[in-house]
Amino acid sequence: MSHVFTRRRFLVGSTLGAGALALSGCDVLDQNGDIDAVLRSAEQLTMKAQRLLQGRNALAREFTEADISPSFRVNGTSVPDSDEYAVLAEGEFKGWKLKVGGLVERPQEISLADLRKLPARTQITRHDCVEGWSAIGKWTGVPLMSILNRTGVKPTARYAVFHCADELERTLDGSGRYYESIDLVDAFHPQTILAYEMNGQALSIGHGAPLRLRVERQLGYKQAKYIMRIELVDSFSSLWGGNGGFWEDRGYEWYAGI
Amino acid sequence: MNENAINDNVRSPRTIFIRRHSLVTRLTHWLNALCLSFLLLSGLQIFNAHPELYWGHFGADGDPAIVTIGSDVRGDDARGFVRIAGVEFSTTGILGVSEVDGELTPRAFPAWATIPSFQDLAAGRRWHFFFAWLFLVNGVLYLGFSILSGHFRRDLAPSSHQLSPRHLWHEILDHARLRFPEGEEARHYNALQKLTYLAVIFVLLPLMVLSGLTMSPGMNAALPALVDIFGGRQSARTIHFITASLLVLFVIVHVAMVVLSGTWNNIRSMITGRYAIHEKGPKS
Lengths: 258, 284
Description:
The complex is a heterodimer of chains A (258) and B (284). With 258 residues, chain A is α+β, with helices and mostly antiparallel strands. Chain A has helices at residues 2-30, 33-54, 83-90, 112-117, 144-151, 184-187; strands at residues 97-102, 108-111, 121-128, 134-143, 159-167, 177-183, 193-198, 201-202, 212-214, 227-233. In chain A, strands 2-1-10-5-6 form a five-stranded mixed beta sheet. The longest helix of chain A has 29 residues, at 2-30. Chain A is globular, with a radius of gyration of 22 Å. The model of chain A is unreliable at 1-5 (pLDDT under 50). Chain B has 284 residues and is an alpha+beta fold. Chain B has two domains: 20-49 and 118-279, Up-down Bundle (Fumarate Reductase Cytochrome B subunit), CATH 1.20.950.20; 52-108, no CATH class. Helix content of chain B is 51%, strand content 15%. Chain B contains nine helices and eight strands. In chain B, the strands form three sheets. In chain B, strands 2-3-4-5 form a four-stranded antiparallel beta sheet. In chain B, a hairpin with a 2-residue loop joins strand 4 (77-84) and strand 5. Chain B is globular, with a radius of gyration of 23 Å. Chains A and B meet through helix 1, helix 2 and strand 4 of A and helix 1, helix 2, helix 6, helix 8 and helix 9 of B.
């Protein structure tokens, strides 16, 4: 019978071991770089699988006016805390210009009035926060594609980076400044717009005035608010934490399609 | 008849071993248990980031919630509660408010039920999506193998005799009295077992995957029908939570049945494949 006991002990031991691992060991595992790298491999798999299923131009669902959320929560920064932004807001953003540069053929600066003269797109879409909540809003703005067609994109460009006016975290080195990035597949997607209106009104400060990004096949933290400058780059390595965005530098996935 | 055949009329009681579970069933069973454990605990971490459930396409603070796990903090006094359809239950210590390093802290599910134990949505998502992929690959392997090997047809499909109301009622009474099949009967799953396993394999687990994918804005663009099936992203999130709860309930009953109907025999059969059946001896 002795082997039964050893087997029994093995079973008890492995059950308890697995339980202990699940309950407390995960925190240790969580801080282990190798394990973190293994867990992170799923992000690439998710992105490749979704891109394969979506194709380039599969559209996010568009809703009707009747579906719009009665209230749309202001998330992240509610007012950018800088003198520069305060001056712009006071002048109703007449002094603001969107700068588009980096790996483009013809860098440009475009005023809000000029953006409003360009062909616009209006879409009623669902905003999905990484935390789990959703809200539906109507967005009007210029397709990013038409801006990039005006500036031209150099062949080495891979990502569009959005530099924002808000500092979501106060830091001495400025690394708490909000920024985001998308690749050219999403940059040239027909629903990717630079929105200056929400629910038929000029974009409020809470929701990102004067201009915010809508990239509808991804989560809320990709929808950068208070856009000051768009830069086309071939890699993120020289930007802050090197992961392509404020939240990405704080552990969140760069591909936020799930 | 071969040596392993069971004969209820043998002269003396004896124990024989049958091969109950195939290697693939055993491997996928334990991998599945591992995946579901990590998925549950990391899922609760993700839930904690917004501990409210809604119905329909949208839902956020201020929208009517079906379920809320929350806290009232007044000075030093913290009270945890769960509110379901307007009815509030005090759950201080477990839900809404629980101890973190000896101090009562507002958080929906307690530290011991989440991965990681501290609040970290980004890490919770990494664990969740990694094990979601492993769970999916494991599940597809199991389904493919079980269809090809005839496991579903042979072991899980109930016979028409088993499905008769009379027989089912009989089994329910037997289970309630904790009387489990013996001898020849123990060779096969009983009808309640078969129906439960089929419900888990073909209803609950696929619902978990589909409702999970429906929460993904990327998948919504790829497969727009998903949103319609569940009636919205927030409905899918609620169904994801309810289905996970049903799976937890299944696991509790499953483990209880394993323990009550012969702990070591059951566990051995899921590890080595060998399952002991006791023959009783002459019928009188």
